[in-house]
Design a protein that fits this description.
Elements lengths: L23 H8 L7 E5 L10 E2 L2 H8 L9 H14 L5 E5 L9 H4 L5 H7 L8 H15 L7 E7 L3 E7 L2 E5 L20 H9 L5 H10 L2 H6 L8 H9 L3 H25 L4 E5 H6 L1 H8 L11 H6 L4 E2 L8 E4 L4 H13 L1
Helix pairs in contact: 6-15, 10-11, 11-13
Length: 351
């Protein structure tokens, strides 16, 4: 819970949560809150219908649920949160804040797939992008740290966690991103594959004998760092991968190297979409807490003006400038605060 100054005044983590409003911890937490004026919900996929934060009513709730096939891991949890909050905090206005909305203004060349027009029109096929709440906050915070307005700034923001994506942000607007129609496209992630040759997937279905359910499960839950490293507990956690690599595990080392290669490649692609780079921003659990990931990414990006100070990088905590002296592009580490971005959008929507 945030107050008007965005100070956290109450918090609760429930992991795992079964989605029930009757969860004793959740019910007890909400019962103890006073002065709640609004509820903000993070919703991963807004499809084509939701291009900005939207006040939730029954029709909105059902429309969000109707997008479940586009984000099957995330959308049901969002709906469960909406339903639980409406039961536990009746009468309190609720707002859905969409991760896709930040990318809704991407120019057509960046948002359009080279697929038959009939398919694109019939199914609404386009690149939506995700992690928009995190990218939006990181861009705003970066502008403050740089002492510059968002207007005129060219930023590449790297949201690196279990899910990961980059955004190319010009003048505060997303002009390109690495995720697409679903959260599977783009970077290597903890258990998600990232971009894969679509012909390979067709081959697996037609020649490899895989079923649709097996293919979907493999791409979502058994790929990425977990699939590459092959650790005993099927971990895709970067901490486990780095520890195994340091102990001499070649598969774990390959996983780290593939991750870094794809990250560098996509940072360069985002920079090309911007026509230059003023600042590179790392955020998210991996982006904030793994100096080795940041240094591996920056190591081959000097031609873009990126260079980081090893000491600053190793000691970075919270919001930190880790730029090496004389580097033309700044490199920042920013703590992910999607809660602040959600609060900002809720206030704007209800005002």
């Amino acid at each position: 819970m945030l107050d008007p100054a965005d100070t956290v005044v109450a918090a609760l983590d429930i992991d795992p949560w079964d989605g029930s409003a009757g969860d004793s911890a959740l019910a007890g937490f909400t019962a103890g809150l006073t002065g709640v004026t609004a509820v903000g919900h993070r919703v991963v996929h807004g499809g084509s219908a939701f291009r900005s934060a939207t006040r939730i009513d029954p029709a909105t709730r059902d429309a969000i649920a109707g997008l479940t096939s586009l984000a099957p891991l995330h959308q049901p949890r969002a709906i469960a949160g909406v339903d639980a909050a409406s039961q536990l905090l009746p009468g309190v206005p609720a707002v859905a804040c969409f991760d896709t909305a930040f990318h809704a203004r991407m120019p057509a060349p960046a948002a359009t797939y080279a697929l038959p027009a009939a398919w694109r029109d019939r199914y609404g096929l386009r690149r939506y992008g995700f992690h928009g709440l995190s990218h939006s906050y990181a861009a705003r915070r970066a502008a403050v740290m740089l002492g510059r307005p968002l207007a005129g700034l060219r930023l590449v923001t790297c949201h690196l966690g279990a899910g990961a994506s980059l955004a190319a942000i010009a003048d505060g607007v997303s002009v390109d991103t690495t995720m697409g129609f679903t959260p599977l496209e783009g970077l290597v992630m903890a258990t998600r594959s990232g971009s894969v040759d679509p012909g390979l997937l067709v081959w697996l279905l037609r020649e490899g004998g895989l079923g649709l359910a097996e293919l979907a499960d493999g791409l979502e839950h058994e790929s990425g760092l977990a699939g590459l490293a092959g650790l005993p507990d099927a971990s895709g956690d970067m901490r486990d991968v780095h520890a195994a690599a340091a102990a001499g595990n070649p598969a774990a080392q390959l996983a780290a190297d593939v991750y870094s290669h794809r990250l560098r490649r996509e940072i360069a692609a985002m920079t090309a979409a911007l026509g230059g780079l003023d600042a590179l921003v790392f955020t998210g659990g991996v982006g904030e807490h793994h100096p080795a990931v940041r240094s591996a990414a920056a190591d081959r990006l000097r031609y873009l003006g990126v260079a980081i100070d090893p000491g600053r990088n190793a000691a970075a905590l919270r919001d930190t400038d880790i730029t090496a002296a004389g580097a033309p592009a700044r490199t920042l580490v920013i703590t992910a605060r999607e809660d602040i971005e959600i609060a900002r959008q809720v206030r704007a929507t209800l005002s």
